[in-house]
Amino acid sequence: MRILETKNVTKAFGGLVAVNDVDFHIEEGEIVSLIGPNGAGKTTFFNLITGIYEPTKGEIKFLDQFLKKSKPYEITKLGIGRTFQNIRLFSSMTVLENVMAGQYCRTKADLFSAIFKLPNARKEEDRVMEKSLEILDFLDLKKIKDEIAVSLPYGYQRRVEIARALATEPKLLLLDEPAAGMNTGEKKEMQGIIRKIRDKGFTILVIEHDMKLVMGISDRIVVLDYGNKIAEGLPQEIQHNERVIEAYLGKGGAA
Ligand SMILES: Nc1ncnc2c1ncn2[C@@H]1O[C@H](COP(=O)(O)OP(=O)(O)O)[C@@H](O)[C@H]1O
Ligand SMILES: [Mg+2]
């Protein structure tokens, strides 16, 4: 089943076209990587899907619904979870609290009852905590559940962000450079984590620069350059695609 589909999606910032006429789709259960040099429009594409920006042109369909003018929290509720290239954890909260915050979009108790621990909210909080602990256990983060999230090493913070995104119970998970700033060992671990999440039934779209990781996890790869989709295919096809090689080499082989 097709989970997400975009048609002619375009986003211009004044005269700069960051995403240009992009047709894209992802099927249920797939891991698709979105790659391309710095400034290619990858994060902007995520921001369009998650309602942070409205497309200048084109349409985005999630399951059977067009995401026209939907707000980010509405899109989270519909079932698209994400992490950010620049980690955005709640700074005064523990790891567990960060993940619980992700779960609250699935609860009925309002924030007021939650804060003042009214009886109806109490039961719900127990459930939220239980579910959050399960997710932390799944990502091997349970032992650091009481640490202040932003005081942790970078690699852990990225994992906590993934845990929080999973707590929103997404049908589609978007990861923006989950292995950025990690060493080889941590990258390998991240590869295992992404696979493990998919094996649990999630569909994953990931922006990543590390080619070894990309080749190791992707069912399919989509390549952006200057906002345009320049290639799409199986990892081995993309690896030998002339336009892709050119796009990267033209920029010093970086990214
Ligand atoms: N809010 C914004 N305002 C103006 N320009 C932006 C904004 N967000 C991104 N851009 C520009 O759009 C282009 C694509 O950026 P981005 O999507 O962050 O690229 P990537 O994630 O592929 O590195 C860049 O040239 C960037 O400077
Ligand atoms: Mg980016």
TrEMBL record:
The keyword Calcium does not apply. InterPro entries: AAA+_ATPase (IPR003593), ABC_AA/LPS_Transport (IPR051120), ABC_transporter-like_ATP-bd (IPR003439), BCA_ABC_TP_C (IPR032823), P-loop_NTPase (IPR027417). One of its GO terms (biological process) is L-isoleucine import across plasma membrane. Keywords: ATP-binding, Nucleotide-binding, Transport. GO terms for cellular component: plasma membrane. GO terms for molecular function: ATP binding; ATP hydrolysis activity; L-isoleucine transmembrane transporter activity; L-phenylalanine transmembrane transporter activity; L-valine transmembrane transporter activity. SUPFAM superfamilies: P-loop containing nucleoside triphosphate hydrolases (SSF52540). SMART domains: AAA. Residues 4-251 form the ABC transporter domain. The keyword Nucleotide-binding applies. Coiled coil: none annotated. It comes from the Bacteria. This is ABC transporter ATP-binding protein. It comes from Alkaliphilus serpentinus.
